[in-house]
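User: I'm preparing a small set of examples for a lab meeting where we compare how different chains pack in three dimensions. I only have the primary sequence for this one, and I'd like the structure in token form so I can line it up with the others. Please keep the answer compact; I'll paste it straight into my notes.
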Amino acid sequence: MKEKMLAIEFERGGCLKAKLLDEEAPRTCEAVWRALPLKAKVIQARFAGEEMYFKTEIKAIPENETDPKVGDIAFNPNPQWRAICLYYGDNIRSKNPFNLFARILDDKEKLKEIGERVWLMGTEAVRVKAL
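Assistant: Understood. Below is the structure token output for the 131-residue chain.
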């Protein structure tokens, strides 16, 4: 099966490529894939460390719940949140593991630069599409 890939484009510059983890989180990957393209506002989640996230209308049940690492992309299935979370640094204080469903393939420095920019400059538009 061909690997499914995402492009994550940021309003102030930068595009990250990510690989869906279909074998580890098949239901979440399918829900995200069907919802593409996504448009939202990415927000800094400093309370959870070096994380940025954006809310979606995607629905998924918990699966492949793991503690995140730099470059991981997870989905928070809580109906009050329904958010896609991107982890860009080692300082991650997430209290709840979410559905790990994708991983950034690009240089982690580019990811960190974008995450720091969102922290310092505030929210910006993000677009996620299939590659």
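A couple of notes for your slides: The beta strands are 5-10, 15-20, 38-44, 49-55, 65-66, 72-76, 83-92, 98-104, 124-130. The radius of gyration is 13 Å.

User: Perfect, thanks.
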